[in-house]
Amino acid sequence: TEIDWKAYMQEVEGFANGTLDYTRLKGDTGPLVYPAGFVYIFLGLYYATGRGADIRLAQYLFAGLYLLNLLLVFRIYCRTSKVPPYVFFFMCCASYRIHSIFVLRLFNDPVAMAILFLAINFFLEEHWSWGCLLFSLAVSVKMNILLFAPGLLFLLLQRFGLLGCIPKLCICALLQVFLGLPFLLVNPMGYLTRSFDLGRQFQFKWTVNWRFLPEEVFQNRAFHATLLLAHLAGLGLFALHRWHRPKESILALLKDPAVRKPASPPLTVNNILWQGGQQGEGEKIVFVLFSSNFLGVCCSRSLHYQFYVWYFHTLPYLLWCTPTTKLAHMPKVLLLGVIELCWNTYPSTVCSSLSLHICHGLVLLQLWYGTAPPPVMHTLPPSRRPGAISKKAQ
Question: Which of 250, 231, 374, 249 lies closest to 300, judged by CA?
Fold first, then answer.
């Protein structure tokens, strides 16, 4: 279970020894492919664990990170009040794979997600600058956090307008420059191509979600382009029809909020998410960010086993944020169970990968139809109403 941990320690050991050329930082599993924030955080763990030798201490530290992560997630869920309390048992105790990712394998994915959930807590408290700083820090640990970026951009535009959100975006960009500066000064192209390599090829043997495809299709660039287009289309549809208020131009987001037209009555998402007030705004923030990330997961070129933590803690909200009858609770719990089973099937099979896509599709369908604006009730003109006609006939 310490394969990745040892590789991480080997990668940061080069930096500890003075190597600033990113292309020369390598481990047993290959070259370093994460941004600079990863290097600094795991360098701290490198020294805290006796140059990576005390793996037991590292596991204790990651167990503490797991508990902190749960605390941050629970605080987000308490602000939304959507998920029934019994579901938190499954989040805490029923996922062997999540416990393995945190405490047995010591991956960097949990570190990035914990920082991300801390950023969301700051967004919920209306501390947008601090939230953007932490969001950028999470990106610097692992790039999967960028799946939340479309939703965050939408929220920033809606909250501050185009000019108002530019300083927030500058915070994100400047932190990336600051963290990467030692490496950028030595080999800028080497740092950028290694740490932000969006075209990296994944090995077919590790894929969890595309096992049912032939390997030549899985590696085909046209397939990757199709997934990218599907991702962009999904984001566009959700931004236009589920994140945005109805009967209001999406271009209104570019204007200063102070000069926008008064908002129409909140009718989106079955009058659930956009209710107004502090709780309603919190629900909106969580819905936009979690759904943005989930769309990216559904269209991912490949999901590896540690990637489960990218969206595991968001699944209960995505399933219960829509109106739920008593009879619908059990199918949603069953859906969580099937997703868990798919991620615990090693190696993945045609059946497990197909089942995972079916589950993702069901979650997407209930998000789309469960948050649709209610139909507009058309009323007849007074002169055409049946009551008026019958009175005239008398």
Answer: 231
CA atoms within 13 A on the CB side of 76: 28
pLDDT of residue 259: 79
CA dist 147 and 139 (Å) reads 10
Rounded-to-integer distance, Cα 204 and Cα 347, Å: 11
pTM of the shown model:
0.91
Q: What are the backbone dihedrals phi and psi of residue 220, each rounded to the nearest 5 degrees, phi first?
A: -70, 135
Spatial distance between the Cα atoms of 332 and 339, rounded to a whole number of angstroms: 11
Which residues does the chain have with pLDDT short of 50?
264-276, 377-380, 383-394
Q: Give pLDDT tens digits for 106-142.
A: 999 999 999 999 999 999 999 999 999 999 999 999 9
- The type of residue at 287 is F
d(CA 67, CA 114): 10
Q: Which helix (H) or strand (E) holds 344?
A: none
Distance CA 322, CA 320 (A): 5
Q: Give the number of C-alpha atoms closer than 13 A to the C-alpha of residue 346, restricted to the C-beta side.
A: 8
Fill in the DSSP letter of residue 2. -
Other beta carbons within 10 angstroms of residue 108's beta carbon come to 17
Residue 154 three-state SS? helix
pLDDT at site 239:
94
How far apart, in whole angstroms, are the C-alpha atoms of residue 132 and residue 111? 17
What secondary structure, in 3-state letters, does 254-313 show?
Answer: HCCHHHCCCCCCCCCHHHCCCCCHHHHHHHHHHHHHHHHHHHHHHCCCCCCHHHHHHCHH
Domain boundaries, the chain: 1-182+203-257+282-370
